[in-house]
Structure formats: structure tokens, C-alpha cells
Amino acid sequence: MNEAITAYPQTLDRLLSLVRDRRRDDTMAALIIDSPWLPAYAGVGTIDFYYDPSTWLRVYEQVLRDLPGVAFVPGSWVELGMTAEPSGWGVPIQWSDHQPPGVNHYPGDLGGLAAAPVPDPETDGLMPVILRQYERMKGPLTDLGIAPRMAACRGPLAIASHLVGVTEVLMATQLDADRCQRLFDKTTELCIRWLRAQLDRMDNPVGVLVLDDLVGMMGPDDAETFGLPRLKRIFDEFEGLIRFFHNDTPNEKVFPGLATIGMDVFNFSHETDLARARELLGPEIVLMGNLPPLELLVRGTPDQVREATAHGLARLPDVGPMLVSPGGGVSPGTPIENLQAMCQEISGRVGHAPSTP
Q1: Whole-angstrom distance, CA of residue 211 vs CA of residue 246
Q2: What are the pLDDT digits (tens) for 78-119?
Q3: What CA–CA distance (Å, rounded) separates 76 from 165?
Q4: Which of 140, 166, 323, 337 could tie 161 with a disulfide, CB 3.0–4.6 Å?
């Protein structure tokens, strides 16, 4: 078996050590990869990637070979676009073989949604299918060295936005705050239940990833009223695990508040400079970034990626602890050669991760 595959447990251990020790003199590549990027990268259809276990496994094996020394967050992610959590409320879903499925809005009004019961991940929507996939693939993923050890969910405000729409949720926080609060309480409870259900299928779990861009679309006061206490409630439930938070909405005004939610690692927009993020977040949170995902990693050349990566590495003593990553997830259309160039530069400068072929 390829050395890069058998070495992945050591790669993950290195990530855990770097984050737990908050090391400022070391770094590595860490990527959020999911179905907007993976199927096209591997040359397979999206539906085949989701529902053909041999295809799904082959894609993860390929990415391990192509990107040795990279830590994947959350890892071997059974992810169906944005559908998992909203599907628990019975929303219509549209499937495509060329992109992740689309989530239609909840057919009732906000009041009906706020009054509906919290979905059960074991029985409702697509969540039981995802859990079954984790169960079925545990053995093959263990053989690959990438058995799932991190759970992931969309955050409570993001789930609400998929149920009723981004604009509609933001307007409702101003016009119908009580119902919004009830809905956000329920989506928060679903996040906790959903993360626990995934962790229950994992041996030796080490972390959780929460993704919520909507809190970054609010001002600091509304973020404090509607979002930050709920994110903190989620992370408080998983004390002892490494807590990753993704929000790549470019809104620095909410950063001081986000510093209080209990996250260990923050994946944020490339539009915020690393030094500015460090100033606003304090010394302890591990920064995960901060390469431009579109202008550089999709549209740039490998040489440009190497140059930008080297610039970030040179700043490590001042802005660390840091994981090198896009300022967000890996965007659709990102050439594998650009990700490999990033990894090669890190390997050459830091001297720990294996170099790519």
C-alpha cells in the first residue's frame, strides 16, 4: 500500500499535537475538502460519489496519494452538500450529477418551523443514511488509515438559513425575534444531537467541526444575541475534543465575540490578514488559513501558490499557531497541482511533511 496512505494516522497525530500544544514554530497543511470539489477532482459523478461506496472510497484513496502529509478536516466526511440537517425537517431536495444537491426552503412559515420538533438524527431525513455509511465504511477506511475521527455539522444559524433563506433569517431576527430564538434553540439542539450521533460511530474520536457563515453576516450585537451563545453551547458539549470552527464571511467585527465560543481552531476568510486576525482573537486560537481560495488556488499558477505560501510561512513566528489552508474550504475547480505546490512549499520550509511525488 502507498506510504502516504499508511502514514495518515501519523499525519493526524501531528495535527492534534500541533493544536493541543499551540506550537508557534511549526505548521502543516490542513484542508476542508468536500463534495463541491472532490467528485470533479477525481473525475466521477456527484451522485456516484455519494452513493457508490467503492467510488467514494476510491476518491479518498486518490486524495491521500495526491496530497501526502495533509491533514483533512474533518477527514473521511460522509457529506451530502448542505442537505443533512435541513432534511430532518422534510424539506425538498434537488439532486444533480454535476454539483451538490440543492436544498429547497421549508414549505411552511417560520412559526410552524419554530414549533416543529427537533429532528432525530437516528430516524429523520438523510441523517440515518449518513450514519449507516459511517458504519459500513469503518472497516475499509481503517484499512486506508483514514478511519473517521471527527464529526461535522452546519451551525445553528446556517441550518436556519438553509431552511428559510439567508435574507429571510436575517430579516426575521429584526422583525420576529422571538420565533427566531425558538428556531435557533432547536437547530442548536440538532447540532449537538447530530455531532453525538456521528461520534458514537467512531473509534477514538478527536474533534468536531462546526461550519456557520451566517453569524459573520451579523453585527456584533446581533451575533451576541442570536449566534455566539449557541455556538458556545455546542462547543461546551464537546470539551476535551479539538473544536474547529469555519466562518469565511469577511466580517472582522465579530472576531472578538467568536474568540469566546470555545473554539480551538478558526478557519476564516482570506480577506482578513493573519496579523489582524491574531490581534482580534488573542494568542491561543489556532488560525487556519489564509490563502485566497479563488484568486490564488483556483486561478493562480503553482509558482504563485508557492510564493504566497512562503510569505505566510515567513510570518509564522508573529501570527502562529497556524495551520496553512485556504481562507475557507477547497473551492470547486481547484487544480490538484496548486494544492501540491502549497504542500511542497510547506515541506521544504518546515521540514516535517513528506514531499509530494
Answers
A1: 5
A2: 999 999 999 999 999 999 999 999 999 998 888 889 999 999
A3: 29
A4: 166
Kind and range of the H or E element at 267? strand 265-268
Neighbours of 186 (CB within 10 A): 21
Rounded distance between C-alpha atoms, residue 163 and residue 170, angstroms? 13
pTM: 0.95
Q: How far is CA 155 from the centre of its chain?
A: 10
Dihedral pair phi/psi, residue 207, rounded to 5°: -165, 170
Distance CA 289, CA 266 (A): 8
286: helix, strand or coil: strand
Q: Are 191 and 159 in contact (CB under 8 A)?
A: yes
- Please state, in angstroms and rounded to a whole number, the distance separating the CA atoms of residues 343 and 2: 18
- Give CA–CA dist 55/47, Å, rounded: 10
- CA-nearest of 264, 265, 244, 142 to 195 is 244
Burial class for 233, CB neighbours closer than 10 Å (0-12, 13-18, 19+): middle
355 belongs to a structural domain: no
- Residue 356, domain member (yes or no): no
Task: Say which CATH number the domain at 44 has.
Answer: 3.20.20.210
pLDDT attached to residue 218: 97
For every residue of 45-93, DSSP letters joined together read -HHHHHH-HHHHHHHHHHHHHHSTTPEESSSS----TT-HHHHTTT--E
Would residue 229 count as lying in a domain? yes
Name the DSSP class of 147: -
Domain span including residue 57: 3-350
Number of Cβ within a 10 Å radius of residue 112: 12
Nearest one of 144, 146, 145, 163 to 155, comparing CA atoms: 163
Give ∠ CA 163-166-169 in degrees, rounded to 5: 75
- Measured from the Cβ of residue 78, the count of other Cβ atoms closer than 10 Å reads 21
Q: Give the total number of structural domains in the chain.
A: 1
pLDDT at residue 341 is higher than 60: yes
